[in-house]
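Structural prep section.
Before we set up the soaks we want a predicted structure of the protein with uridine-5'-diphosphate in place, mainly to decide which crystallisation condition to try first. Input record follows.
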Amino acid sequence: MAEQHTGVGRQRGARPWPRPRRIATLSVHTSPLHQPGTGDAGGMNVYILEVARRLAEADVEVEIFTRATSGDLPPVVEMSPGVHVRHVTAGPLEGLTKEELPGQLCAFTAGVLRTEAARPPGHYDLIHSHYWLSGQVGWLAKERWGVPLVHTAHTLAKVKNDRLAAGDRPEPKARVIGEEQVVAEADRLVANTRVEARDLLDRYDADPARVTVVEPGVDLDRFRPAPGDRHAAMLAARRRLGLPTTGYVVAFVGRIQPLKAPDVLIRAAAALRERDPLLADELTVVIVGGPSGSGLDRPTALIELAASLGIADRVRFLPPCTGDDLPAVYRAADLVAVPSHNESFGLVALEAQACGTPVLAAAVGGLVTAVRDQVSGVLVDSHDPVDWARTLAGLLPDRARRATLGRGAEQHARNFSWDRTVGNLLAVYGETIAEHRERLASRLAADGALSCAW
Ligand code: UDP
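Run finished without errors. Recording the tokens verbatim:
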């Protein structure tokens, strides 16, 4: 089974693991500068940014390569000391979908290789690629530069295709093949959870010695319960967001796409009306996020759904949130719902819990790690709105139970910090570099022995 890191600075034999000085992070299809919660920007963007910042604080420079998607972008942006985002021109600046990007991988790779070629030799010690498109670029770059490749898939096509929502497009065979190639070529695969590690081993035939689980984190300074009286803070957050100060609020936060299943929550609110009209009239469903992907992607489709179910007055839509508004959304809610058909991890679930709000989540993928069932929230083993309505009917009026779950949520979230993630990643990086150097040394020794024999 895949190894799980729990600490930093472990020793390899007598020597400490080497620490990279400089890392090339590859994020072809989405930039850490994009606003998460809409389009292709979500948890992966947050992950790359949070990790890069903390790596730089640990004296590891990070250069993030991403595709230029607008003519206004400077070639390089310094995001924070030691973290640079480099925009690579590959294909048209605007109007290219993620599905069209495989055709631009050669151009993107050329841009990455040219950048490195203009640098002194040995500029990067390691490449970390995110998502399979970047893994393809990393595969070639690692061979050219003679450095190891660490890859994080974030989502896997075979898993996603098993759990397609109505209206969602299956991932093409080309992606499955592309992922299999990256799994075979990467020196190390970082899985977000044990579930993902199992999928890599069982479904992608990954070498168990090269799979390591490193759980993502949450910014515990930003996402925390409001100080002072919780109820007063909830009311203040609701006022700030223009939400009703009476009754219950259940929030969905994320990209609006079929896989995230915000429709399940809306249908559950309608099913609750059948079951308990008085309770349903006290409920406001808040959907925060912007369009992404296919099918049910337009908020207009969700607005129409709510209207067709006769609950338009009970559903509020808010655009993607930045800055302090996101903690306010979590604090304003009695429950945060994550009904996804699949989730590699589910950062929203962690963020909500860190704010002391219990989470009602589908028991899929990383959510079974992100949420402790009956302790920090409730996992629902179904996407049937009737089951969701039943769970809502049990939880919403039970203030004492929600308060207990809220305390459990806050405690559970404390197990996940970005510092812990970065500590574990540094251990993976160090180990991978050490193994790579050992392989090189034994190859050189073998070559030497061969030339002596001649
Ligand atoms: N997010 C945000 N503003 C929004 C909606 C979402 O900043 O309006 C962020 C959210 O805080 C989280 C990320 O987007 O960090 C979504 O990550 P998650 O793992 O929940 O889902 P993914 O997008 O990776 O599928």
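Observations: Residues 418-453 form the longest helix (36 residues).
Flagged for discussion at group meeting.
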